[in-house]
Specification:
The chain is α+β, with helices and mostly antiparallel strands. It folds into 3 domains: 1-51, no CATH class; 52-217, P-loop containing nucleotide triphosphate hydrolases (Rossmann fold, 3-Layer(aba) Sandwich); 230-355, no CATH class. Helices cover 22% and strands 26% of the residues. The protein is built from 10 helices and 16 strands. It has helices at 26-30, 37-45, 55-68, 87-92, 114-127, 146-153, 170-179, 227-230, 233-239, 295-298, and strands at residues 71-77, 97-103, 134-137, 159-163, 205-208, 214-217, 245-251, 256-260, 264-271, 276-282, 288-291, 311-318, 322-326, 330-335, 339-346, 351-355. A 6-stranded mixed beta sheet has the order 3-2-1-4-6-5, with helices on both faces. Strands 7-10-14-13-16 form a 5-stranded antiparallel beta sheet, with no helix packed on it. The model has no long low-confidence stretch (mean pLDDT 91). It binds guanosine-5'-triphosphate (GTP) and magnesium ion. Guanosine-5'-triphosphate binds next to helix 7.
């Protein structure tokens, strides 16, 4: 056993259990390896055969990191903003100086100005009882917003912890800051491990900069009710937005439904004839339109993923310019007329109604 930690994911290095986190073969360790076998495989082959860190291990690491930190950078995914603010995680950060990095803004269509998105974020923070929190829109994919984020992080003291739910891009944001040579650069040659699978980082992992600033990555807090966590890893990869959002606009009246095969259906119970629904998702899944009579065909019988068992129904009112968000899947946005909808989702999946993110605001 060794006291060393993998520089990519933070796991404690061990040489005895190939199927556990932190494994490095003894011979490779002797040769000076600093990356565990899992991180090596993620970086070189894009595969993680070991699966995610558990919710309880992740929570324990975040708590330890929180005690160490002088300030916190909470990273959220703009497209699943509501899921990124779980009360338990916010509770752990109480009393800490906080900067919010709203990541993945590259996925927003160019027709929605980012100034408008900034106003939307501010009003959502007020709604969640977080007024006055400094929020910076960023994209770890294209570098947008990073000079501003770097300035804000310098207000958090010397020990800055990056936290957030799984897969929002904490390690990607940290990697970009390290590449910018924030705090004068870093001494380690290895960057944090990044992968499209949730649960990649398994322990707190620190990067010391010459000026005294220490930046620390942490494992993702495992959220409840995200559909992308309920399905197989392959299907999750399809439904998590990576490159761009896809949107489809449908005139929807009573008796119609929009659905994503095997994952979600939204029936129209009542609306006036001019109503429109726009469905937004990541590139691999799509909202389509059908008749409510086809519900069984596209929902239960259409399920390709064995992990989904029971279904739940919820009646939801949606006003024009409101989004009905299904966590970890996408959302539909109403235009021109109010709707009364019946939402069918897998048992335990979370949903929210919010002011529209994309398109002209009220
Ligand atoms: N489009 C886009 N994708 C991003 C961005 N930032 C991160 N990603 C992608 O999001 C996925 C997760 O990124 P990570 O940095 O591993 O996320 P994390 O929050 O550290 O995840 P865990 O360690 O699992 O909690 C990867 O596929 C990244 O390439 C971004 O700004 N835009
Ligand atoms: Mg990570």
């Amino acid at each position: 056993m060794s006291d060393r930690h993998c520089q990519g994911c933070g796991a404690k290095i061990q040489t005895t259990e190939p199927d556990s986190f932190g494994f490095i073969p003894e011979r490779v360790l002797q040769e000076g390896a600093v990356l565990c076998q899992r991180c090596f495989r993620i970086n070189h082959y894009g595969r993680d055969d070991m699966g995610p860190v558990t919710a309880s291990d992740s929570l324990a690491s975040i708590q330890a990191g929180m005690e160490w930190s002088t300030g916190v950078c909470l990273v959220v995914d703009l497209l699943d903003f509501e899921a990124g603010l779980p009360p338990q995680l916010l509770g752990l950060m109480r009393g800490k100086d906080l900067v919010l990095a709203v990541n993945k803004v590259d996925l927003i269509p160019k027709t929605t100005p980012l100034k408008e998105v900034e106003g939307w974020v501010k009003s959502r923070l007020d709604y969640y009882g977080l007024p006055g929190v400094k929020a910076v829109l960023v994209s770890a994919a294209n570098g947008y917003g990073f000079p501003d984020l770097a300035d804000q992080l310098l207000t958090l003291g010397n020990n800055v912890l990056f936290v957030g739910i799984t897969n929002v891009g904490k390690s990607s944001v940290l990697q970009r800051l390290l590449q910018m040579r924030i705090g004068g650069g870093h001494r380690k040659k290895i960057d944090p491990t990044i992968s499209p699978y949730p649960g990649t980082t398994v322990n707190v992992s620190r990067w010391s900069c010459p000026g005294g600033l220490v930046l620390a990555d942490s494992p993702g807090f495992v959220p409840k009710g995200r559909i992308s966590d309920m399905v197989s890893p392959d299907l999750a990869l399809d439904i998590i937005p990576h490159k761009s959002l896809s949107s489809h606009l449908y005139p929807v009246q009573e008796g119609d439904m929009v659905y994503i095969k095997g994952l979600c259906a939204i029936e129209c119970i009542a609306s006036s004839s001019q109503g429109l629904l726009i469905g937004f998702t990541g590139s691999g899944a799509q909202w389509k339109k059908s008749s409510s009579r086809q519900l069984d065909k596209w929902l239960q019988k259409g399920t390709q993923d064995a992990s989904i068992g029971q279904w739940e129904e919820h009646v939801v009112s949606l006003q024009p310019r409101q989004d009905l968000v299904v966590s970890g899947l996408g959302w539909v946005s109403a235009r021109k007329a109010p709707y009364r909808l019946k939402l069918h989702i897998p048992e335990g999946a979370e949903f929210t109604v919010r002011p529209n993110l994309i398109g002209p605001k009220k």
